[in-house]
């Protein structure tokens, strides 16, 4: 049965913002939300039990406790939630997952910021392009903070695409930040840019990203196996991609 199990009744949230970090191109969403929760000291707030998620339990090095692979973290001072996922969501489960999470978010008056990478290689040290799209009035927020729209037409696929589709169909406010990222490898630099010049700007909050950039190679190596698994499932991953000239 689909449900969100809240673990912390002592955490008070008032119309919070949710930053989503499902695995995708360059693992930018996962890297960004993992870093965000650690940097802000966010607490494990809820477990996500949605139909179609793999029936697995995860653990962390140095910890005895098992937990669910998809979790929500909270920061009551900033009215902030972050979705962390240790597994991809299968294409066949994307719609059920989107309906499950979106129903809970609507009930909680949550405003989501979805994160996606668009696969493009770039020169070493160059800054990846960052774009924003949205629905339900989110375009005004993007204009207000100077985040540009994409230069070409495209689509967002995978579970993040399903979440955005649900928002469009139900006229819900939702923002999606799209950053250029490596198609082949984890991309900590793109994740750092996504946080510093995207999420941080929308939240009007400073998000330190030095650890992501300084430890980029270490992080890339640690996440390489996960990225290879994501390439194998392909359409499971959340990603933005151009439609091309002839749509």
Automatic annotation (TrEMBL):
Pfam families: PAC2. One of its GO terms (cellular component) is proteasome complex. Residues 209-239 form a coiled coil. The keyword Coiled coil applies. Transmembrane segments: none annotated. Keywords: Coiled coil, Proteasome. This is Proteasome assembly chaperone family protein. It comes from Haloplanus aerogenes.
